[in-house]
Amino acid sequence: MTNLRPLALTALLLATTPLALNLARAETPAAAPAKPVYPPIARTAYRTAQFQLDLRTDTQTLARLSPVGEPAFDFTPGGREAERAGDGYVHVGDIHLRVRTPGGAWRDFSSAHQRRPIRPLPAGGAVLAAADITASLGPDSPLRIERRWVSERGGLVLRFVLTNTSKQPVEVGGLGLPMVFDNIITDRSLEEAHAQASFVDPYIGRDAGYLQVTRLNGKGPALLVLPETATPLEAYRPIQQAGSPAAKPGDIFTDRSKRAQTSEGFYDWTIASKAFAEQDWKGAGQPWNPPTSFTLAPGASRVVGVRLVTSPSIRAIEDTLVASGRPVAVGVPGYVAPTDQTLSLFLKSPKPVARIESLPAGALTATPVKTGTGWARYAIKASGWGRATLSITYADGQVQAIPYFITKPLDQVMADLGRFSTTKQWFEDPADPFKRGPSVMTYDRQADKIVTQDQRVWIAGLSDEGGAGSWVAAFSKQLDNPDAAEVAKLERMVDETLVGRLQVADGPQAGAVRKSLFYYDPAALPSYYDPKLDWTTWASWSKKDSEDLGRSYNYPHVAIAHWVLYRLARNHEGLVRNHDWRWYLDHAHATVVAMMRDAPYYAEFGQMEGDVFVDILKDLRREGMTAQADQVEALMKARADHWKTLPYPFGSEMAWDSTGQAEVYAWMRFFGHQPQADETREVILAYDPTIPSWGYNGNARRYWDFLYGGKVPRIERQIHHYGSTLNAVPLLDAYRANPADFHLLRVAYGGLMGGITNIDQEGFSSAAFHSAPDMMAWDAYSGDYGMGFFGHAYAAATYLVDHPTFGWLGFGGEVTQKPGVVRIAPKDGARSRLFVAPAGAWLTLEAGKIDAAEYRPATGELTLTLAARDATTATARLIVEAATPGKRPYRPVGAALERGAYALPLAATPTTVVLKPN
Asked: Could you give the 3-state DSSP secondary structure of residue 597?
């Protein structure tokens, strides 16, 4: 195997097209242009108890921010300061203003657009530097702006005083502070990026809002940006690239740095957003918070600012918030609220809660629950469907906003998705020249029809992520919630469309997978293609290109189809009819082997949904298919041994990615490379936060895949793209191995449930949510959502936890207590997996459902109540593992092992099974 491709090479694949499809994956890179040489920028150094920092001498904007003790690390892009020194580059310390006087139009002012000399003000004591920066706004500003950098309580405070110097009231409808941290991966290797770059995640929670800036390697310290008085984080506005199609004509709130897959760009901490909502965000969905403005009378002033502090580690962020006097919210199991579950919300704040309101009214109810823990606890119930917010007002007048997403009971969500994907998305057209039917195809919710054409041909071609997502979701849904009619359709898809068309059926390349069934060939089909689409980009593959077998990421999708049908055929009666279980497991095996044989280049990287390969190997072993198992294990071990040699084995076809980590973790664990598994876990936590918002809680960082699978293709932070659930899988495994690390469970469950919010009330599943305030809506394409739904279906489970502060908690289930017994009724999307954290017991059902479980802490005894049999499930198959080292293994009383699972006959009424620790 070759070494991982450096990010600098991948970055050279950037190209501009009308669709902004700006990363030509797998194209040959061009020669790198010579880098220009920039003159150095004069800086002045300062120090606080927590930071070493530099301010530019000319502008007094932040040029370096290093934690004390690590002067070589910089949270800002200080190493690029010289190239970013000119007009039009924003920095921490700049300000954006949109103001108007009575009867006048909104006017824009930016301290970065055309820089002018600032006027230094006296400094000394706690004030490190100060300046009147009004001149930098231009000659017409009605406001005087004074800025101060202050050392306070060990941290660094950036404070602005806005004073109305005109003779009229001035309404401030747009006020933003650019937050410029080093999230730039361009021209860095993976090792350099993990050592030097940072990620930024926002809690857009009004007065309780904050930013967390975490290092790519997951190591501490982390940086927190906290609000000063009168500085709510009301909105988080992307600062668009100057001159790009995303920037509106005349927009001066821009930055000249190139946004791309290697650089997400920067954002404004937006304190007032009414003018943006009126002018720039018309027609967008509901913002995170109601847009506001404020008015300054002549001579009046307002002070705004942010405080920068360090947290020793990512896990210590909430403790640091508490120590900084900030309100803190902990939602259990998170902020996605199925209407049949009761959630818990724990609040800790310097001032007591004065009132809690639901927006919209009645969507959420918060009932106080007595607790002696120092935290206020509320039971949260939801009604309706969609987005809602809890608005919490504290006694000092501060307001905290906690966004929730309300959804149906999860068994209904599963049924909706299965029904929609196998009816509305079911494509069957004998005249189709590309022979794509029968199949489940990409759907356009806006047009309410199947996407049969897109210039990104894979979207209409059943392959790649953007085209395979819908049918991967349909197959994955059957894993825990099979429906006979849906399974029958999917069997047809395997026989008539996958094997022999998308997947090579026989010969020396048997098992290999094509890049797309759809392609662009106007000579052969002169009247087929929509002339309104742009067929001139690299994404409009020719027939030859579509038949290429070398993209490894296509292989797990097909492997999932075979593996799910194997599991159903093996563990249920009469559900799968076209082939026996061995046929499907043989084809799953052939798919794994073909990936390594015919797509070796990208196969050296972790694959999205790659966990399925681990299960295929385990099932081959359990079935006694030793030769095939040995072959797969040898192939996978070669990959794992390669990853073990790399400090950060997380490369992909992209410069940086958040999808390969899950499979890397799985094989590191499988082959006993625990230090590398631990490293992978920490890297995941760097881009996967726990934040009091349904959107960002467990939301694995992703901002480019709308280009490849969305209807609106642009660089934009995606909410609950498929990375959220896929990265939940390793974090849940890591939690089961160490239940003391509660942070892992919270992040993982946030991602697991976040992936459910993509599914609408009828069962359509969107690729992801557009978080930019000019959209705030789900993308209309189903796109690559199915990769995420696989993660949810694969990992859906209920967790019973005894927390040292919060007591007995249920993640995915309702907890009740009586003397000596804790009972949990699973309400997760599978009801076939249960982890009892105090016992370290991991119970999984290959067939059957769990109605309830009772745990007796004094004896450790577990009692399961299994659902009654159904037409295809007469026997439950229970696997019992001691997932936590040092815990005693459990076994059901009187049951016998069969293929690694306990076979438990079911009856017409629920069955009780007692498990005791050995």
From this structure: helix
Can you say whether the dihedral through the CA atoms of 444, 450, 455, 458 is positive or negative?
positive
Q: What is the DSSP letter of 736?
A: H
Confirm if 835 and 800 have CB atoms less than 8 A apart: yes
The b/e string for 315-338 (b: 16+ C-beta within 10 A; e otherwise) is: bbbbebbeebebbbbbbbbbbbbb
Tell me how long the chain is: 918
Query: CA–CA separation, 774 vs 714, rounded Å?
Result: 13
Single-letter code of the amino acid located at 133: I
CA distance 148 to 55: 12
Secondary structure element (H or E) that encloses residue 815, with its range: strand 813-818
CA angle 630, 473, 338 (to 5 degrees): 120
> Are the CB atoms for 853 and 836 separated by under 8 Å?
yes
- Which residue type does 613 have? F
Question: How far is residue 396 CA from its own chain's centroid?
Answer: 34
CA distance 125 to 637: 60
Q: Rounded to an integer, what distance in angstroms lies between the CA atom of residue 310 and that of residue 224?
A: 6
The pTM is what? 0.96
β-sheet bridge partners, residue 268: 178, 237
The Cα-based distances of 317 to 194, 213, 329, 602 in angstroms read 20, 10, 12, 36
* Residue 378 CA to its chain's centroid (Å): 27
- State how far the Cα of 595 lies from the Cα of 575, in Å rounded to an integer: 29
pLDDT averaged per 10 residues in sequence order, the chain, 918 residues: 30 30 38 74 96 98 97 96 96 98 97 97 97 96 98 97 98 98 94 96 98 97 98 98 92 96 96 97 97 98 98 98 98 98 98 98 97 93 98 98 98 98 98 98 98 98 97 98 98 98 98 98 97 97 98 98 98 97 98 98 96 98 98 98 94 90 98 97 97 98 96 97 98 98 98 98 98 98 98 98 97 97 98 98 98 97 98 97 96 92 97 94
Radius of gyration for the alpha carbons in the chain, expressed in angstroms and rounded: 28
How many Cβ atoms are within 10 Å of 680's Cβ, its own excluded?
29
Q: Which residues fall within 8 angstroms of residue 356, CB to CB, at 6 or more apart?
A: 366, 378, 390, 391, 392, 393
Rounded distance between C-alpha atoms, residue 429 and residue 435, angstroms: 8
How far, in Å, CA of 560 to CA of 556, rounded? 6
CB 567 within 8 A of CB 479: yes
Neighbours of 45 (CB within 10 A): 10
> Which residues, in sequence order, are CB contacts of 497 under 8 Å at separation 6+?
435, 436, 437, 438, 439, 462, 517
Residues 558, 582, 414, 733, CA torsion sign? negative
Residue 370: what are its φ and ψ, rounded to 5°? -65, 135
Residues 263 and 183: their CA atoms lie apart, in Å, by 6
Pick from 712, 840, 833, 813: nearest CA to 771: 712
DSSP 392-433: EEETTS-EEEEEEEEE--HHHHHHHHHHHHHHTTEE--TT-T
Q: Mark out the alpha helices in 167-217 (DSSP H runs).
A: 190-196
**Helix or strand holding residue 212 (H, E):** strand 210-215
CA 610/CA 600 separation, integer angstroms: 15
Phi and psi angles of residue 537, each rounded to the nearest 5 degrees, phi first: -90, 170
CA distances from 297 to 139, 229, 300, 436 (A): 20, 19, 5, 66
CA distance 142 to 163: 8
The tally of CA atoms less than 13 A away on the side-chain side of residue 48 is: 25
**753, containing H or E segment:** helix 742-754
What is the C-alpha end-to-end distance of the chain, expressed in Å?
A: 45
Contact 589, 620 (CB under 8 A): yes
Amino acid identity at 200: V
What is the token pair recorded at 712? 């609106």
Residues 6+ apart with CB under 8 A from 397: none
From 601, 609, 717, 536, select the one nearest 17 (Cα to Cα). 536
Which of 174, 147, 74 is CA-nearest to residue 306? 147
